[in-house]
Amino acid sequence: MAIRANPRLVEELEHYGAEDVAKCYHCGNCSAVCPFSREPFLFPRKSMRYLQMGLEEKLLGNLEPWLCYYCGECSEECPREAEPGETMMSMRRWLTSRYDFTGISKLFYRSWKAELAAILLVALLTGAGFLLFGFRWGGGHLGVYAGEGAFLTTGAVHVFDWILGCVLAAFLGINCARMWWFSIGKDRTLRIPPLAYLRQAFLLPVHFFTQKRYAECGKKRPWAIHLALMLSYTTMLVLIMFFLHAMHSERTVWAAHGFGYLATIGLLGTSIYALRGRIRKEETHYKHSHETDWIFLILLVFVAGTGILQNVLYRVFHLDVAANVVYVVHMMGVVPMLGLEVPFSKWAHLAYRPLAMYFSELQAEAIRERERAVAAAGAPLPA
Amino acid sequence: MEDRRIGVYVCNCGTNIAKVVDCDAVSDFAKKLPGVAVARSYKYMCSNPGQEMIIQDIRELSLDRVVVAACSPRMHEPTFRKALQTAGINPYFLEMANIREQCSWVHDDARAATDKALALAHAAVRRVVHHEPLEKRFVDMCPATLVLGGGIAGLTAALELSDAGQPVFLVEKDDHLGGNLARVDLTAPYLDSARDMLADRIRRVLESPKIEVLLRSTLQSLSGFVGNFRAEIRVGADGARTVDVGSVLVATGFREFDARRIEHYGYGRLPNVVTSFELERMLREGRILTRGGRVPKYFAMIHCVGSRNPEYHGYCSRVCCMTALKYGHEIKSALPGAYVYDLYIDMHAFGKGCEDFYRRTAEMKTMFLMYAKGTTPEIVPSGPDDDCEMLIKVHEVLSGEEIEVPADLVVLMVGMEAREDAADVAHLVSISQDKDGWFIESHPKLDPVATTTEGVFIAGTCQAPKGIPGSVAQAEAAAARILGKISRGKIEVDAVFAEVDETRCSGCRMCNELCPYAAIEYDAATKRSRVISAVCKACGCCVAACPSGAIQGRHFTDRQIFSQIEGVLEWASSQG
Description:
The complex is a heterodimer.
Chain A: E1 3-4, H1 9-14, H2 29-33, H3 45-53, H4 56-60, H5 64-67, H6 73-77, H7 84-99, H8 104-110, H9 112-137, H10 154-185, H11 194-199, H12 203-210, H13 221-242, H14 244-247, H15 254-280, H16 291-315, H17 320-344, H18 349-378
Helix pairs in contact in A: 7-8, 8-9, 9-17, 10-17, 10-18, 12-18, 13-15, 15-16, 16-17
Chain B: E1 6-11, H1 23-31, E2 36-42, H2 48-60, E3 65-70, H3 73-87, E4 94-98, H4 100-104, H5 110-128, E5 137-140, E6 145-148, H6 152-163, E7 168-171, E8 186-187, E9 192-193, H7 194-207, E10 211-214, E11 217-225, E12 228-235, E13 239-245, E14 247-250, E15 254-256, E16 273-275, H8 276-285, E17 298-305, H9 320-334, E18 339-344, H10 354-363, E19 367-370, E20 378-381, E21 390-396, E22 401-407, E23 409-414, E24 416-418, H11 422-429, E25 456-458, H12 468-488, E26 490-493, E27 498-500, H13 510-514, E28 520-523, E29 528-531, H14 541-545, E30 551-553, H15 558-574
Parallel strand pairs in B: 1-2, 1-3, 3-4, 6-7, 6-14, 7-10, 14-25, 16-23, 17-18, 17-23, 18-19
Antiparallel strand pairs in B: 5-26, 8-9, 11-12, 12-13, 15-24, 20-21, 21-22, 27-30, 28-29
């Protein structure tokens, strides 16, 4: 059955940042130079082709964009300046919007104004909610930051964090299930034994925590920066979800705060480095910036900055009122950042990329098995 | 025989000859032959030092005959004849033994190849003894030129010649000038208007007092020879003109491949399958519509229709790729919402500005779909839910997928082919056609606009598919060649030709019928045939055919040829 080509898809992907894909004439230099490209996933050329031809179904089930870490070597080698690296990035944005069943992601990627408005709305609602809680229901005082009579009690914030976490996990979980369906579930030609899912499951934490394929790139710095950012983020997430009491206690608990300071330095350092890189456009992977990249980085700097500021105001200057105000402002950044960016925008890749590493290994195994079966069936019978 | 002083020169041709033939053995052998005064082997006889060696030997050793055992005489006979002339002896005292094309290039066995070279050298030595001194002659050159074809090549050549002050008769079959280019809208890769280019040239041609334009006219016959042709031209339905010209330029152009021949593209049957020339017409008229009067949204260009397919034409028509890219630009500028695909085999974007043009077309989001050579895309009806007239199914090579694309207008990029009357023209002006019908140039690289008939030149797409710059360049080159002949005022005629001994001629006229160059006249009064030496190419047909033995070819006398044959046979018998 012939697949219908859709000449409009190239235009659609422009909204996601793929502005140069039409220039590609398939010399294959990109796939040859890519340190990650290997059988049976030879990218980025083939993904570029699916996009040029508008083979939407093929593209939707294609995990290759997630196997790319955008080291930029392909774009540097491309004789036609078709920016294969950026095209893969755009396809990740497009795939994120397609995995998302709510349509919110699509809206955000296609309109930065909508995303900004949503962030502001959630921020205002969050601010209003926490103020209402502090003044009306919490029974605390604006003059107390931590301990007895605190404006925002640790217990209440903790409960709120967990509710938010569960909602996000639900959204992301459904999207991940859709990703599985598009790439593996729908494809009737792939037979993956259930045991294989278990056997390969170790790939998820391995790729999540080490990003070791990124380390295969000739340039090590982007990997180091990315790893530092990711580990800082994860550390902070663990601290907030499991050690909020220690973080919010009256005394400095170095076992928790030490990690907090490290994570803050990591988050601020790497995100400011990335912001500076995107402004200067010196490194290939920073040359093209989608609006969502800016929003993501600015939110990150804002959240990390207000996070450390409230801590300093309270612990160094003992300014409880100011610390409480900054705390509310901090939450006005945290909630939209986690609530909107994780399931619907750039941060979704924290789940999709390790999943793609995992799924692609399953796919590769199934493809190899299929080829073996074909070869065995085609082999002449012994005399 | 002993009174001859022969020099034998064996060329190694670098290693071309020496790697198979033992060149020293050939020169040692030649030294011992009767009449040979000197024999040498040298790396490159055609080089300046090689020629100097011959010249010096002729002067110092008083040589009167020279044998060069080297490449084909087609390659370097003129070179060595000139050397003889420089040394002060008649250039026709030279004989070449071809020990490259006939020995080293075609044989692996070094011993056998060397034996053959010895035989050929022996034969050449035996022959050259009988060479006679011949003198070149000169005839007058008529300055007028007959240009066949009023397309861009013919117009250009006519202008070049008339600008130089020489008269031109421009013969055009159609009722207007411009040829195939008059059917084109814009031109690739700079998107200049063909109409503008042509209008200026046509105006200048029509205004030129030196150019006589004959429309609705065809050449009926051409007689004579270089510098002295006489052309009979039919003008209109029943007019006739006879003109005397010194040169003829054939610039008769091409015709487009008949798309009906590839049946499954459905041209002529499917309403919205058109040829590239039909799209040109739509673009020129500014009305791009489907047969049903709808503005098309999806355009598909199918490349290589009739070209690069052994069933039709194996060659590439050279201009269709860039023309198809041009349509992409024109369509998208006329209909900004339209989608354009190019279904191609390979993108041939050679030529100035073309690769850049290809790149710019890609940037405009033209969808390039590669199909495999030997396959053809398939056009099928669209379904009830489709917003298009047709679907094209194709095995797309770069993705490896079977795909279908929507199409409202399918444009067949028809290739170029030789015109239906090319064989007639070739026969009239005595030039040859290749297997595809294109006129053959004298040398594909070094003499691209001359033909094997002196004074007859070719330019433009009648020679092979090419674009406007190539056609114009050829026309200007041909004009320069013609002007060169005109400026010399006289035509040098080769001293080698056939002669009729009138005392032995019986007037049977067999030779008149046979001569492929119409070089033999029959004098009804004396009842004798006579060779027009300037037209004769010395092919030898008449010599062989004459039942009375009345015709001899100069430089190819019976004595010369028989002694050459004896040379080979004697050598063979001496080997037992």
